[in-house]
Amino acid sequence: KANAVTKIDRIEAIIVDVPTVRGHVLSMTTMLTQSVVLVRIRFSDGSEGLGEGASIGGLSYGPESVESVKLAIDTYIAPALIGMDADGIAAASAHMEKAVKGNPIARAAVECALWDGLGRRTGLSVAQLFGGRVHDRLPVAWTLASGNSQTDIDEAERMLDARRHRDFKLKIGKRGVKQDIAHVAAIAAAVGDRGTIRVDVNQAWSLTEARYGARGLQEIGCILIEQPVSRDKLTALKSLTDGYEIAIMADEVLQGPADAMRVAANRSADVFAVKVCQSGGLKPASDVVAIARAAGIDLYGGTMLESGLGTAAAIQLFATVPEWQFGTEMFGPLLLKDEILATPLEYKDFSVTVPQGPGIGVSLDDDKVSFYRRDRTVTVKA
Ligand code: MUC
Ligand code: MG
After folding, report:
1. What separation in Å is there between the alpha carbon of 327 and the centre of ligand 1?
2. What is the ipTM of this complex?
3. Closest Cα to residue 335, out of 16, 57, 29, 18?
4. How far apart are CA 347 and CA 40, in angstroms?
5. Which of 117, 224, 225, 379, CA to CA, is 20 to 30 A from 273?
6. Distance between CA atoms of 349 and 353, rounded to whole angstroms?
7. Mean local confidence (pLDDT), 329-349
8. Of the residues 171, 233, 275, 283, which is catalytic?
9. What is the pLDDT of residues 61-96, one digit of tens each?
10. What angle separates helix 282-295 from helix 308-318, to the nearest 10 degrees?
11. Does residue 328's CB lie within 6 angstroms of at least one atom of ligand 1?
């Protein structure tokens, strides 16, 4: 039938656990493994779409975990979407928002898979579906978070030598502010003019600590502080933004366009960390970008430490945005000990190449997925 509508037939959500290359020490937890949810949608014409939802450190980073993401998809999102028009992403997203409040990471994983499916069916990349790329490559920062200053300096040297990264984000907030400033100062002095230094506090500071931290960090040449205070403390965030030269970036506070509007309305931050998962999908993330651009807020392409799949999806969208004043941190797959894409993303010359090809432009290595899936069945020979 020429005009038969392609429908959403089946939505599968798989939790995979992949060890990290080293312990990733954050203010709230230390990650030894990254867990993500891979989503595969099968459509009635035989086509497929892939998406990914990730968070960081179980429930220590934010209100969703991979377990809650899988539950929301299996129990609420899949039944609501099965049978809907595969190409009607706006309708499916509206339906999903009606069926599931909050849970942006779960919604994002499914929405990404719908865009991937549409791209594969039409032969267009997700970047093309979002207006076309304006970049072939994007700059990629690296996070130094071994928990030890000298180990971090050695790691930074290796990244500079390999021309893999020159912008470094340091995870702080676990130790006292004074110790943290000394740690950042040591790394900043070692890196010198070869790169830039930023920090992510992951909400750990009170306003008083943050004031002391902002003053100290700007004096040693650190260029940005990410989410210094709790995501509930918008007034505190604004007072830091207004009070210091160092750029203040919003991360955890941005759970989609409505939060972006709230932060932009009072100009409570200088920069948005745009995260596809945290925003609720590619389209809402593009709305967050639009709000920032309209408000004169700078942009940074953020990650939830997705594997190559979710990272590639975000790269497709980020490639359509003219200016990322603070670059991106699309290094997720490089923090993982093993690659689950059939062909890894290309990292060189301090940047990542935007994948070519329809949809998100990547495919999974099915053997790796079988190996790392949490519910894998191991067959033992008798
Ligand atoms: C975060 O809070 O931004 C992003 C990079 C990284 O190392 O951790 C994440 C989480
Ligand atoms: Mg952050």
Report:
1. 14
2. 0.98
3. 18
4. 26
5. 117
6. 10
7. 98
8. 171
9. 999 999 999 999 999 999 999 999 999 999 999 999
10. 40
11. no
